[in-house]
Write a structure and sequence with these properties.
With about 250 residues, the chain is mainly α. The chain has helices spanning about 1-25, 35-45, 50-85, 85-100, 105-115, 120-140, 145-155, 160-195, 200-210, 215-245. Helix content is about 85%, strand content about 0%.
């Protein structure tokens, strides 16, 4: 209860500061919350942007495709590097180095190769989500106690039984954490890709509103996108809690 009250107090203070700053600033560049509420209402009622539903659905589909590709490739690559020690030592540092490169530098090449349609956004989201999933799988395999594997094999456990009964519980929390991070980065990658250059999607609507200095619509669109981002992270956090409870 105390935490909820503190959060409400911080939110109220933030809105108050935003209201005062928005009224004092240039109306072409800033908008107070009192002006955002009517814009958000018109947006949700499909008055200002009738294509909101189609754009939101397109963005969700792009995120789903990017995340599915990132999970498949990340799990496959991570397990391959983790199960083969030489490959892991050779390629692990290279993947970590590529992950450290700012991902936005890859987007111009992706846009030139895939164009302005959904493919470049999916590729950018996949690129951002692939590395944390791969590194999480690799780290999870490395933290498995090898003595437990030896004992399980000594009692006659096969490869599948060793993986399910010994390795998976030991690495599950790290793996789920990597999947959660990968999902968040896929969402960010798709939306950022749409903002940088797209013909449709939530990012294209945000670009349109900002380009026309429709600041109320711009903030309302950002809030809708924020709900999408936070909602995906909440779902991932629920799965992470279930994984933590299972490992404990």
């Amino acid at each position: 209860m105390k935490v909820a009250l503190v959060r409400l107090g911080l939110l109220a203070a933030l809105l108050a500061v935003w209201e005062v700053a928005g009224r004092a600033a240039n109306p072409l560049l800033a908008v107070p919350p009192s002006a955002v509420i009517p814009a958000l209402r018109d947006l949700l009622l499909l008055r200002s942007y009738p294509e909101l539903s189609a754009s939101l659905l397109l963005t969700v589909r792009e995120i789903g495709a990017a995340y599915a590709l990132a999970v498949g490739a990340g799990l496959g690559c991570g397990f391959m590097l983790g199960m083969h020690r030489v490959l892991g030592r050779a390629w692990g540092p290279m993947i970590a180095a590529l992950y450290a490169v700012p991902a936005v530098v890859w987007y111009p090449s992706l846009m030139l190769f895939f164009g302005l349609d959904a493919a470049s956004k999916i590729a950018f989201g996949f690129l951002l989500g692939f590395f944390p999933i791969t590194l999480a799988v690799l780290a999870g395999i490395r933290q498995v106690n090898p003595q437990l594997v030896v004992v399980a094999r000594a009692y006659g456990a096969g490869a599948v039984a060793v993986f399910v009964r010994v390795m998976l519980p030991s690495m599950l929390f790290t793996l789920v954490g990597g999947l959660r991070t990968g999902l968040a980065l896929c969402v960010i990658g798709v939306i950022v890709g749409e903002i940088l250059g797209s013909k449709a999607g939530m990012g294209a609507l945000i670009n349109h509103a900002y380009g026309l200095l429709r600041m109320g619509d711009y903030v309302a669109l950002v809030l809708v996108t924020l709900v999408l981002v936070v909602g995906s992270d909440v779902l991932a956090s629920l799965l992470e809690r279930r994984a933590r409870a299972w490992t404990e």
